[in-house]
Design a protein that fits this description.
Layout lengths: L1 H6 L3 H4 L7 H14 L4 H9 L2 H6 L8 H10 L4 H6 L4 H4 L1
Length: about 90
């Protein structure tokens, strides 16, 4: 499964795996972090499909690879967009 995920560049096919267990989720998020910087349409679609919101809801330990990949993805978007899709946004209003 790891090899299949690492070779997949069709990101909508990977989106259902954003709800996978953490040991698989790490590879899925890593693949998003690899592909999204090079594809503007994929970044737009990732937000519209709810992928960015699912990424924000991931509870990754600080310093873990999963956390690093989530941060890489977050840097691709303006801070306001990342904050809007974060789970605590409604509380900050």
């Amino acid at each position: 499964l790891k090899c299949v995920i690492q070779k997949c560049t069709t990101l909508p096919a990977l989106e259902p795996l954003l709800e996978a267990p953490p040991n698989i989720l790490k590879y899925v998020v890593q693949q998003f972090a690899k592909v999204l910087p090079n594809d503007l349409n994929a970044r737009r679609q990732f937000v519209q499909s709810g992928g960015l919101q699912k990424i924000q809801e991931v509870n990754a330990e600080v310093g873990s690879k999963l956390h690093d990949y989530v941060q890489e993805i977050n840097t691709l978007y303006p801070p306001e967009i990342v904050q809007y899709y974060s789970p605590n946004y409604a509380d900050t209003l």
